[in-house]
């Protein structure tokens, strides 16, 4: 794991950019599970509507291999999903400049960058990021394992907790 003192400035930066909380975590503590994609396929209106959601994202098995190829991660809590991807991408670019060349971020929910997603070729590939749950991550178990809480609001999703993840090496 990267020395936490080298990553503390990114925690502060995540808050400055609009996150509620941010922690350095071990990617091994991120829980992936095959049932998560079922929840996308049967029950989510975003399924197959954009490139950041299933079935266009890595499977839980692929995601496990991705997670296991990193030693550190930032888990970031937001209220609502609207800002998540923008902050994740912004922070990712700043951390990349410091030499962590493997860095990659995951957002929450569908990509909102275009009015209609171009399913053949992404219009903004450097800005679009896959949804964490769309990659088979059990977000509830992951945040609980790392001491975060999660409250969802079915009536108003913009008031619920949403999480982004940045893998760092
Ligand atoms: S940037 Fe546009 S084309 Fe690319 S994933 Fe997002 S909505 Fe789809």
Structure explained in plain terms:
The protein is globular and about 40 Å long. The protein starts with a helix and ends with a strand. Helix content is 30%, strand content 14%. The longest helix has 14 residues, at 4-17. The protein has helices spanning 4-17, 35-41, 60-67, 84-97, 139-145, and strands spanning 21-25, 72-79, 104-106, 161-168. The chain has one domain. By secondary structure, it is an alpha+beta fold. Helix 1 (4-17) runs antiparallel to helix 4 (84-97). It has 5 helices and 4 strands; from the N terminus they run H-E-H-H-E-H-E-H-E. It has a 4-stranded antiparallel sheet with strand order 1-2-4-3, with helices on one face. The structure holds iron/sulfur cluster (SF4). Iron/sulfur cluster binds at residues 50-52, 111, 113-114, 117-118, 122-124, 128.
In brief:
The protein has 169 residues and is an alpha+beta fold.
Strand order of the largest sheet: 1-2-4-3
Quickly count the domains.
1
Structural class by sheet pairing and helices: alpha+beta
Low-confidence regions: none
Strand content: 5-15%
Report, as a whole number of angstroms, the end-to-end distance: 8 Å
**Number of E-state strands:** 4
The helix content, as a percent range, equals: 25-40%
Residue-averaged pLDDT, rounded? 94
- The number of helical elements comes to 5
Shape: globular
**What is the helix/strand order?**
HEHHEHEHE
**Structural Rg:** 15 Å
Largest sheet: 4 strands, antiparallel
Bound molecules: iron/sulfur cluster
């Amino acid at each position: 794991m990267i020395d936490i003192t080298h990553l503390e400035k990114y925690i502060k930066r995540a808050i400055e950019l609009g996150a509620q909380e941010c922690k350095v975590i071990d990617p091994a503590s991120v829980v992936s599970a095959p049932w998560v994609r079922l929840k996308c396929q049967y029950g989510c209106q975003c399924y197959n509507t954009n490139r950041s959601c299933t079935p266009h994202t890595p499977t839980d098995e692929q995601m496990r291999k991705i997670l296991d190829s990193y030693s550190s991660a930032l888990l970031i809590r937001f209220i609502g999903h609207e800002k998540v991807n923008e902050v994740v991408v912004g922070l990712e670019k700043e951390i990349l400049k410091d030499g962590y060349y493997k860095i990659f971020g995951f957002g929450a929910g569908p990509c909102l960058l275009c009015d209609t997603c171009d399913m053949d070729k992404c219009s903004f590939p450097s800005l679009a990021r896959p949804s964490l749950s769309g990659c088979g991550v059990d977000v509830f178990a992951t945040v609980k394992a790392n001491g975060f809480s999660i409250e969802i609001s079915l009536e108003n999703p913009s008031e619920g907790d949403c999480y982004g993840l940045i893998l760092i090496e």
